[in-house]
Amino acid sequence: MAPELPTLQSDPKSLAADILNVLRYRVGKDPSVATPHDWLTAAIKAVRDRIIDQWIESTKETYEHGKKRVYYLSLEFLIGRLMRDAFSNIGLMDDMRTALASLGVDIDLIATLEPDAALGNGGLGRLAACFMESMATVGVPGHGYGIRYVNGMFRQEIHDGWQVELPETWLDHGNPWEFERRERAFEIGFGGAVESITDKSGRLERHVWKPQERVLAVAYDTPVVGWRGNRVNTLRLWSGFPVDPILLSRFNAGDHIGALAESNKADALSRVLYPADSSEAGQELRLRQEYFFSAASLQDILQRHVSAYGDLSLLPEKAAVHLNDTHPAIAVAELMRLLMDIHGLDFDKAWKITRGTFAYTNHTLLPEALESWPVRLFERLLPRHMQIIYAINAEVLLEARAVGRFGEDQIRRISLIQEDGDRRVRMGNLAFVGSHSINGVSALHTELMKETVFADLHRLYPDRINNKTNGITPRRWLFQSNQGLTSLIRETIGDTFLDNVEALKELDDFAGDAAFREKFAAVKRANKERLAAVTAERLGIRVDPSALFDIQIKRIHEYKRQLLNIVEAVALYDQIRSHPERDWAPRVKFFGGKAAPSYHNAKLIIKLANDVARVINRDPAVRGLLKVVFMPNYNVSLAEIMMPAADLSEQISTAGMEASGTGNMKFALNGALTIGTLDGANVEIKECVGDDNIFIFGLKADEVASRRADGYQPREVIEKSPELAQALSAISSGVFSPEEPGRYRGLIDGIYQSDWFMVAADFDAYADAQRQVDAVWQDSPDWYARAIRNVARVGWFSSDRTIRQYAEEIWGVPL
């Protein structure tokens, strides 16, 4: 058993002394001239010191007892701010507040200065962050691997309603949590040629890849603290550095730009998350990034394994390497290369070890999100890996043909190489065949994987696909983001739920308790007042906290159907003006999310949301009954304010297209009712909370597929729905864009002509569900009883539960 740590004193007086010590000797400041950022750094480092002993002990214990370690490879880790999480998880939040107050420092003030690490785009990256915290909490020895993006996901500003992308310079003041590990640096190659080495008889012995370019991947480690501080794991992020920072001879000859070319190439690898891949240069950089972090991570893993155990055949017993979506799928070919070319194993042994080591999580059914790369680009950038992929493909296709159950079309779909048109390497297929386990992230998504994107591979390997429904960490998404509700729950049912969130089910008994409902409503009101204050401060828009707060915050994408929500807002606007005599429920519709820089329609939807808001919010005929707000720069910190304030959670994706969602879980845990389709994890949320405590509408996944197959005619649907037709006409004709009447004509024509995302098909059902929402909202006791049941019944959606399932059923890590 690990010793009880940390050993440093953690009372407020000792903490204050240590903060002053750090401020003087490690920040180099006297308190009289220290800036708020200096105090932030000093506070974090004083607490970080109390984490390090347990961090080291956690690592030593893993090796001394030969425990299996999990390595989680993810191109995104949307970790957000870490200070409150870490302080809370080791039980120091109250003492740190007191310690800083004794020094004249407000912890809430400096907490807002901590950068929101923009190392992810959305749900996939936030899931990875939740998983890292839960691994440490439940006792899974784990390493996360990713890229230390200097800018990460862009900072979003809204100029005249349009999204503007600016660099997110989260490292401007340094990162006091991380440790640079210059000694953990690995060379990563690109391009060049492959040389075949033969013995005296001319038989092939091995291949030697001789890259044309080399860069260094340097590790930066951040401790990840589990709940109660019992285990501390590592998030290791790689930064790119040149092998030769400057070609001095070229610099002295006057070629200053050329002399720094290698440095610039290396820097680009860890500069920006998801470079635009609409150009060939962008595609190449994206592939370089994926190989860069995958190769560095595998070299690190193998070096650690060989040092500890020696025998590479033991790798599947001692290491579980998990691929978070297709971004690190190149790791399959890279591990084969390392095992064969560097460690001398033959193909069969290397393939057995590789498949035993890797597992793969699929996060999407969208074909465009299952990455593929042009063969010509792959061959130029990674020539040895292309050879290995061809060899793996031959192995898989021979196996498929030997089964005798597959026709030529099925064989083509199983192949790692797409032969139609421009030949491409299918990274999803590579991840699938190279892994012993492939999991979906909700029950519906997993079944659809078997029926759609991986149908043929599932027939070939019927035992590999399994489900692991996503989860969220309650420490971040309840204890820290909603302290008022946490305190109320502790007062009501005790502290058991702090260690086992499923104990929240005891709240079910209080849904009918009028006194508890009043307290619950008061907490919600305080959270709404906080969001209202932020809205007024940032946008100058005043909203009424007594109105229903209807919130849709997530990445902007057509399948997530922000457009359906906006069109319904326009229809509601028309109805409020046309029927002022009706008893309308006051409502504020909040939107937030970023659109990919090259995604035209998504950016147009952001502009439309802002144009609609401008018109509705200024119209006195609405009498304040409806307001529309687009919150710029949606990130983790903003989510922590908006989710506790939500009354209604919009989870309205086209059925069959959302893999899981985790925002739906966060909202429900914070007492919002869900309006949504039977898509992703909504299906399981409905099962947990009960039909009466969720608003479900619209086509099911199989019905969407049938509509598309049967030649769906959206124009006929629109013509039968006066409210929808009027709303679409208003948008298309320029009512909300009088300065450019045709701005949205193409967007609306897309609904009339194809309506791939079923906006028209689901509109009437959605509008009816919203009127049901109004009716329940106006019966306040009933609304809050339903909200309380949501909180009580969604404890199952904890990432602790998810990680335990991964550990027991995929990774083979005993708990």
TrEMBL record:
Residues found modified as N6-(pyridoxal phosphate)lysine: 666
Chain coiled-coil ranges: none
InterPro entries given in the database record: Glycg_phsphrylas, Glyco_trans_35, Pyridoxal_P_attach_site
One GO CC term, this protein: cytoplasm
Matching Gene3D superfamilies: Glycogen Phosphorylase B
Needed cofactors: pyridoxal 5'-phosphate
UniProt KW Phosphoprotein keyword: yes
A biological process from GO: glycogen catabolic process
Cross-referenced Pfam families: Phosphorylase
Family recorded in the similarity comment: Belongs to the glycogen phosphorylase family.
Protein name from the UniProt record: Alpha-1,4 glucan phosphorylase
Species of provenance: Kumtagia ephedrae
